[in-house]
Amino acid sequence: MALKPSKKILFWGKIVVFAGLVAYIGHILQQQPFDGDTVHRQLRTVSHPGYWAAGLLLLTPINWGFEALKWQILLRRVQPVSLIQAYQGVLAGVSLGFALPAQLGDTAGRVLSLRAHRTEAVGASLVSGGMQFYVAIVFGAIAWPLHLAQVPERSTPAGITLVVLLALLSGLGIGFGLVRRPLLNWLERRTALRRFTSYWIVAQQYDDWEIAQALGVAALRYLTFSLQFYLALRLIGIVLPPDVAAAGIGLVFLVKTIAPAFNLLSDLGIREAAALWVFTPFGISASVLLTTTLTLWLVNVLLPVLIGLIWVWKLKLQSA
After folding, report:
1. In a domain, 151, yes or no
2. Residue 85 within a domain
């Protein structure tokens, strides 16, 4: 099928981003070839590895539970559901999101888990994703200047510009929250955009308390999977000062939040490339870092994807 010029540009842009990620990881591994013996020696230095592993695993359902709670809160204006139903929809979305680009799969899984008001639910899903995106921006705006203080050679004009940009985006998020209703009302009156009104109309209906609740849950979820990252570091034997670990984790998740929209295969390779760039100045082996990010991916992504396939199968049966 022929693609429109704009879609061709987007497609090839994603190819370039994905190729760049692979090239960067390959460049690091060429300088520091993956060494299983190094990883094995690192693992032998860990005291009480079972505790770190148990914490990492136990936080996984809590992490996705916060996401389900946020989804439940935002879905009340569309179709009230129980927390269990919200959880099932989230897991179905995780599984579909593993195969489909950007937020398409996540939204499809959540919406298809409902039996009515699916069009309005698309808007609720976009609001949910937007809130998690905004929380990552805010924490990233704190993490980046902290990282620059720890790695002064990266405090370049471009680095300082990024500090200003992240602070500006954080402020714009607050501004949008204050003017969202007048802005959406104005968009609704635009003839060219009127056909999309049913998707965003739900965003006008949330009151300030609902927005605050959902943002609070989004922040709790962010802190939960950040703690999981820290536990994965400790499980592999990486011990960093708290400020270094916090800044590094915040930056990795900032990149992971922004980059999938421009990557061909969701977040494949993004966490790995970001972790290598962020933590290499602190003398951590590339082999150990890749083992850490792979462990986190297996526990926090692949495991929920496999469980979510159960609900994807049920969605197919319901459709049939």
Report:
1. yes
2. yes
Distance CA 1, CA 163 (A): 42
- Nearest residue to 256 (alpha-carbon basis) of 283, 296, 288: 296
Domain count, the chain: 1
What is the pLDDT at residue 11? 47
202 lies in some domain? yes
The reported pLDDT for the residue numbered 59 is: 96
d(C-alpha 249, C-alpha 139), whole Å: 10
Domain of residue 246, residue span:
47-319
Q: Which two tokens stand for residue 36?
A: 């299983």
Do residues 73 and 210 lie in contact, with contact meaning Cβ atoms separated by under 8 Å? yes
Q: Which two tokens stand for residue 33?
A: 């070839």
Kindly tell me if the per-residue pLDDT of 168 is higher than 70: yes
81-105, pLDDT tens digit by residue? 999 999 999 998 888 777 666 567 7
Whole-structure pTM over 0.85, yes or no? no
125 occurs within a structural domain? yes
Token pair belonging to 268: 């494949």
